[in-house]
Amino acid sequence: MDGFTSFMDAALAEARAAALAGEVPVGAVVVREGVVIARARNRMRELVDPTAHAEMLAIREACRVLGSERLTGCDLWVSLEPCPACAGAIAAARLSRLYYAASDPKSGGVAQGPRVFDHPQAHWAPEIYSGIGEAEAAALLKDFFAARR
Amino acid sequence: MDGFTSFMDAALAEARAAALAGEVPVGAVVVREGVVIARARNRMRELVDPTAHAEMLAIREACRVLGSERLTGCDLWVSLEPCPACAGAIAAARLSRLYYAASDPKSGGVAQGPRVFDHPQAHWAPEIYSGIGEAEAAALLKDFFAARR
């Protein structure tokens, strides 16, 4: 398995763990020089924190690991298009690349809606790649919400 | 002093404390039924966390205090226009009202740039009031950056 597939697989594994914990299944990892330095899943319910999105937690953990407020040179792999809060956090952390799996027409903030990186106020924009692992990420979300109905 | 002024004063007091700690001077409080239930200042440097904005920390603290992921019925008072990350957090937390002092043409995400609440993807938008305490909030920021040059 090449790195390209395995980093999104690591994010998807976090998403599956989120579903098992009763959280909306989204997972994320931060990669630096080919190594996963932080991984996280949605924990909003567990932590009673509406900001405890996978991306937000992974970014914070990566900053802790590196002892730096800046993640320049690092990549974020996440199973769902980030919302505006997480897109803003990606900019604040100066992540170099964003890879996301499924699009989020409902709450996405990158390729739709506020398009957080597409304004002069975006002092930072990562390179963006989408669609890797999209089918599995979307199926996880669909199954999760179907089971709750 | 009426409540209207004193809640922004509480946010400005947090902003002044941030400046003393060497952080960009922004402060925020969350108010529920006329009572301040959480207060915070920027702590990005102290916590080595690019997401440790005043609003983000105040929202998290308010959720802890109430034991709820939702802050419906609560107000956020903040000395600067929220960035996209904090605007997203405000939506995620379902805050009912947002009061901010100074506009942020450089990084703001509410009245300019991504205008996070002005899209179909914004599943929640608070009532928004701006300009209260603007002069003091702007002066704090200006003095802070002038002293660092």
TrEMBL record, chains A, B:
Residue ranges of domain CMP/dCMP-type deaminase in the record: 2-111
Cofactor(s), by name: Zn(2+)
Domain of life: Bacteria
Residues the entry annotates as binding Zn(2+): 53, 83, 86
Family annotation (InterPro entries): APOBEC/CMP_deaminase_Zn-bd (IPR016192), CMP_dCMP_dom (IPR002125), Cytidine_deaminase-like (IPR016193), tRNA_aden_deaminase (IPR028883)
Residues that span the membrane, as ranges: none
Catalytic activity reported: adenosine(34) in tRNA + H2O + H(+) = inosine(34) in tRNA + NH4(+)
Signal in keyword set: no
EC number(s) from the headed UniProt entry: 3.5.4.33
Active site, per annotation: 55 (proton donor)
Family (UniProt): Belongs to the cytidine and deoxycytidylate deaminase family. ADAT2 subfamily.
PANTHER family: CYTOSINE DEAMINASE FAMILY MEMBER, TRNA-SPECIFIC ADENOSINE DEAMINASE
Subunit field text: Homodimer.
Name assigned to this protein: tRNA-specific adenosine deaminase
